[in-house]
Each structure stands twice: as structure tokens, then as C-alpha cells.
């Protein structure tokens, strides 16, 4: 009866915990006593001959395991970071070219190591990287050589006529050129682009790319006007306003600060308002991307210690500008 009770307790414990955790002493006791059981009972125990053989192989492997010295040593993380940085920044560099640059920096690596690292990082070799799409190459271009253009519309209060505003922004300095307001077509847009490039005060030679959307006003003649000065026109993907983020940010800013807070009477009124706002935007308004400095400030930053401040109203107190009062 005692054996039956013990067997039933073991059966109950197996239902709650099918794989109990055994200590070393438990394994030794079970391994010693299992030999005294009949074969039929031995097959239903926790410790089977296969268990004993597996434990024996584990002990042998643990005793005779040596340090694995075969194979190449791992590549240092610093070298991996340099290889990735050089490959992504220089799309035309191959494995040997990167190997030479690393050698100049004091890192001796093989070309096969460079290839293995780039393959692990999923960076394609030089020919596919060099012939990448123009949009990705445009995104990697420095912002100092980038222009962004777009249209935004304003509805007049009296006639309900919709007037379109064409502007171009310098991405590096956030300087905005308001080129005109009208109901534009391809010829008018091309002429505005020519006027911008002919302005002697603008540095057309410093720019390499112009990003635009796929509006119908941007015709082939518009592209040719910029291509003649060495500026490559890049079209944003369809229905992707965030691709032209600089222009979209300016549109949101001018709407929040001016056009959504005023009743525009006609096109002449709109031009006057935008001229005043462009002057404030380019010369007085702080910009987060420029560390809270204007794109082209018309006066130096005031020194600390001024207590007398003079306020100046822009667009009839719609915007307030502050500067230190003259002594």
C-alpha cells in the first residue's frame, strides 16, 4: 500500500511538472539505483540509458574542450564603422580604394575584409552605388547647394479669386525669394526662374540642385533655364509632399503667421503683404534650423545688458519685432 501511495504521488507530481530540475546529487542517486530495477520499470524512469550516455558525452566534451583558435580574428568595430562611412559617403569607391584609405589611416585590412563587411551591412558594391537613383543622390547632397521651389494659393476675400504665389527657398540659409503672384502657366514660371538667375545679388553658381514637385507649370523650358547654369532639377516622388520638406515648412509658416490671419482683398494687397513678410522672414525672424538666427540679419546681434527695448510692428501689429533702443 505504501508503494502504491508513493507511485500515485509521483504521478501527480509528473502532471504538474513534466520536466523537473535535478541537481547533481539527484542524478548520482538515480544513476546508481536505476541498475537495481527490472528492465520494464527501468524504461519508465526519469533516468534512461540514453540520459546516462548524453551526460557522459557532456562531461567528456567539457573536460577536453580547448580554445578555438581557428579562423580569422574578428574585425574591430572602429574599422567596420570607417568602412561603412567611406562606402556611403563615396559612392564610386571600390574595395581596393577603401583598403587604400584605411592603410593611410594606419589600419591594415584586406580587400576581401572590406567586401565581407559591406556585404554584412547590405551596402552594394561600387557600380550599383555609383549609379543610384537621382533622388537618393539628391538627399545626400549638402544643403548648401540646394534650392526648393513650390506654389501656394490664397483666396481673395472680396472676389474669391484664387491667387498663386511662386517662391524659391535656399535650403542652407532658409532665405526665401517671393518671385510673383498670379494664375501661373508654364511660360510665366519659366520667366520668373530666369529673373531669379539673372539677379546679380544671388549666388546661382553656389547651387547644384533644385527640388520641385510634378505640377504642370514646371515645363521643359523651366528645367532648361536652371540646367543652363549647372543646376540639376530633381522632381519629388508623386504625392510625397514631405520630400520637398523645406518648401512645405515655409508654406505652413506663412499660412499660420500671415495669410490665415488676414483678409486678402486682391492680388496687389497680397503682394504688399508678402513683401513685408519676406523682409521680416529673411532679416529679422529667428529660425530653429539656424540656431535662432535670421537667414541674413540686417544688423549684428545685440550685446547683453540692454534694458531699453524698442518694439516695431509688422503688418499692422500682426507680427511684433523687437530690437534694442538707441541710446
Can you give a write-up of this model?
The chain is of the alpha/beta class and 327 residues long. The protein has three domains: 24-55, no CATH class; 77-132, no CATH class; 143-290, Ribonuclease H-like superfamily/Ribonuclease H (Nucleotidyltransferase, domain 5, 2-Layer Sandwich). Helix content is 43%, strand content 14%. A five-stranded mixed β-sheet has the order 3-2-1-4-5, sandwiched between helices. Strands 6-7 form a two-stranded antiparallel sheet. A hairpin with a 5-residue loop joins strand 2 and strand 3. Helix 6 crosses helix 7. The model has no long low-confidence stretch (mean pLDDT 82). Residues 138-302 form the Integrase catalytic domain. It comes from Saccharothrix violaceirubra. One of its GO terms (molecular function) is nucleic acid binding. This is Transposase InsO family protein.
Amino acid at each position: 500500500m505504501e508503494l502504491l501511495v508513493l507511485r500515485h504521488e509521483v504521478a501527480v507530481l509528473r502532471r504538474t511538472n513534466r520536466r523537473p530540475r535535478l541537481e547533481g546529487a539527484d542524478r548520482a542517486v538515480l544513476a546508481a539505483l536505476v541498475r537495481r530495477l527490472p528492465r520494464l520499470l527501468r524504461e519508465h524512469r526519469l533516468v534512461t540509458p540514453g540520459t546516462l550516455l548524453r551526460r557522459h558525452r557532456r562531461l567528456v566534451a567539457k573536460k577536453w574542450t580547448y580554445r578555438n583558435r581557428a579562423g580569422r580574428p574578428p574585425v574591430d568595430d572602429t574599422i567596420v564603422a570607417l568602412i561603412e562611412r567611406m562606402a556611403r559617403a563615396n559612392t564610386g569607391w571600390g574595395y581596393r580604394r577603401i583598403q587604400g584609405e584605411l592603410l593611410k589611416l594606419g589600419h591594415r585590412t584586406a580587400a576581401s575584409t572590406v567586401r565581407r563587411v559591406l556585404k554584412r551591412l547590405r551596402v552594394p558594391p561600387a557600380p550599383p552605388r555609383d549609379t543610384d537613383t537621382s533622388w537618393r543622390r539628391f538627399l545626400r547632397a549638402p544643403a548648401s547647394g540646394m534650392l526648393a521651389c513650390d506654389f501656394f494659393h490664397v483666396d481673395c476675400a472680396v472676389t474669391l479669386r484664387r491667387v498663386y504665389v511662386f517662391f524659391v527657398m535656399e535650403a542652407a540659409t532658409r532665405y526665401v525669394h517671393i518671385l510673383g503672384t498670379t494664375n501661373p502657366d508654364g511660360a510665366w514660371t519659366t520667366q520668373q526662374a530666369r529673373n531669379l538667375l539673372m539677379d546679380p545679388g544671388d549666388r546661382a553658381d553656389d547651387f547644384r540642385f533644385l527640388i520641385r514637385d510634378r505640377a504642370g507649370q514646371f515645363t521643359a523650358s523651366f528645367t532648361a533655364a536652371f540646367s543652363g547654369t549647372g543646376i540639376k532639377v530633381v522632381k519629388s516622388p508623386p504625392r510625397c509632399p514631405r520630400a520637398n520638406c523645406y518648401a512645405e515648412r515655409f508654406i505652413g509658416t506663412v499660412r499660420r503667421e500671415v495669410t490665415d490671419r488676414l483678409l486678402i482683398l486682391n492680388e496687389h494687397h497680397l503682394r504688399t503683404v508678402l513683401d513685408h513678410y519676406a523682409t521680416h522672414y529673411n532679416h529679422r525672424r529667428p529660425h530653429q534650423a539656424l540656431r535662432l538666427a535670421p537667414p541674413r540679419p540686417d544688423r549684428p546681434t545685440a550685446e547683453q545688458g540692454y534694458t531699453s527695448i524698442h518694439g516695431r510692428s509688422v503688418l499692422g501689429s500682426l507680427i511684433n519685432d523687437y530690437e534694442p533702443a538707441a541710446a
